[in-house]
Amino acid sequence: MNILLVTIDCLRRDRCGIYGHHRNTTPTLDALAQEAHVFENAYATGPVTTESFPGILAGRLSAQTIAGSTIYQKCLPEGAETIASHLRDKGWSTTAVISNPRIGAHVGSDRGFDEFQNLRVPDGESTDDPSGSILPEFVRDISVGDKLYSLRERMREFEFVPYRYEIPFLGFRYYQYLSGWPSIRGEVVVNQLLDSLSEQSSPFFGWTHLMDIHGPLHPHAVTEGGLSKAGSLAQFRSHARRVSDVYDSQIESRYDSAVRYTDMQLGRIVDWLKSNKLWDETALIVTADHGEALHDRGIYGHPHHYMYDELLSVPLVVHAPTRDSERLSRPFSLGWLHNIITDICEVGSLEAPLSSSYQWDVTADAADSDETLLADSISSSGHSVVARRGAKKQVLQDVEMADLKQRASQQPGMYHTDYDPKERAWGGSEGDLYEYASEYIVSPEEIKPTASSGINRAAEDRLKQLGYAE
Asked: To the nearest 10°, the Cα dihedral for 269, 226, 40, 431?
């Protein structure tokens, strides 16, 4: 059986039609769900990309990875198995096409892949892109990441966007539009993926990661999604408010339109599998690395320690030709994704710290599940851990982190998501859940950088254009 894993950056579960969203954002995913397993309660292992992919690829928390040259960069330990290395050793050909500069060979994400393409490679170069540069080479040498990042920090000091900051911000956005957008559009990534898959022998394991919902949203993706008709200037002005955490009523429709564009790219993948007679021989898995805060609590984006379910709750749809369709209510961690994949492939389990006794024929209600899900977030501020069992969610932070009371962090305590789904109230502690989470907490001294990140200055500037920086 072939396995194709599609991960989508920043895709909230509640913005998908199959989970009740009112806009027609995901017609391809909705149709796929009619003949697939739909997980009603799937959760990421971290609120940001560097903390979720150790879970997705290798069944690990951030605390179970090695920090790179900055705390924000997580690296898989030497020798740690991944889904790709496990399947390759069992005879699968393995290929990946991604475009996120945060993940790649420099953090071990390429481990186990016979062919691994990061179209936004760590040295800052990229493959051809319809949104690429039309400026002379000497103009494109100007670094804007530092300027954009410092400008964004100043903009957040206000409850509105002053013109003296908005005007240079718009200038930087137009510069990106002309010189090469910091993320590569899904159309280009999927083209490369399909070319790569066409050269693979069966069985294969393929992975792609799409960045079109990650800010800044490319104007073409928003327009082509068809759910927002705003021009580039209006979109850039919206994004100025978004990075400033100033509410904008149009941001959600533009986010939804980018979701629809991404769903169109998923449709191209489905059509390719069917036209190449691979549909009945391929398990297609669609999920997200994390969600996105859409001013739910006065914040946009996906900051560290924001452990609310706007970020941790993700879609998960598994279309496996040998399995019946079903909606599963039991909580499921993306750190257990390897259990599903090895089960489909009928091979032995992956050696991973995060693992589940999950069985396809078990469809217990969430309240009946006794397995504990884990998620964590690490920064220079400290460590946050979530332990979840059924509707009970225990949030724990190390003492220094708890004392900071950062605006983006979730208040430590016990949450009951069945009768308080918005997580507005918290109590003290649930004895065994608190003890369970405590076993995974590390102190700031234990999470200091230990190695080089492998990212040069050009790549760091590109990351800052995407909003990544400590």
From this structure: 120
**Locus of tokens 């962090």:** 409
Contact 438, 394 (CB under 8 A): no
The CA distances from residue 189 to 94, 195, 209, 275, 461, in Å, are: 17, 10, 8, 19, 22
Q: Is 253 left (phi over 0), alpha (psi -120 to 50) or beta?
A: alpha
259-289 burial string, b = 16+ CB within 10 Å, else e? Answer: bbbbbbbbbbbbebbeeeebbeebbbbbbbb
Greater pLDDT, 430 or 177: 177
At 390, list the tokens: 């059924």
Average pLDDT for 102-112: 90
Instruction: Give the residue carrying structure tokens 């892949």.
Output: 113
pTM: 0.91
Residue range 384-408: mean pLDDT, rounded: 83
Give the pLDDT of residue 301.
92
pLDDT in tens, 250-289: 999 999 999 999 999 999 999 999 999 999 999 999 999 9
Alpha-carbon gap, residue 106 to 455, rounded angstroms: 7
The DSSP 8-state label assigned to residue 221 in this structure reads H
List Cα–Cα distances, 183 to 12, 258, 467, in angstroms.
19, 13, 11
Burial of 232 (0-12, 13-18, 19+ CB in 10 A): middle
With beta carbons less than 8 A apart as the criterion, state whether 116 and 207 touch: no
Residue 446 structure tokens: 């234990």
pLDDT at 448: 60
Residue where the block lists tokens 């920064």: 379
pLDDT digits (tens, 9 = 90+) for 436-460: 999 999 876 676 655 555 566 666 6
Give the separation between CA 381 and CA 402, rounded to whole angstroms: 9
Q: Which tokens hold the place of 316? A: 């998960």
Distance, in Å, from the CA atom of 441 to the CA atom of 196, rounded to the nearest integer, reads 41
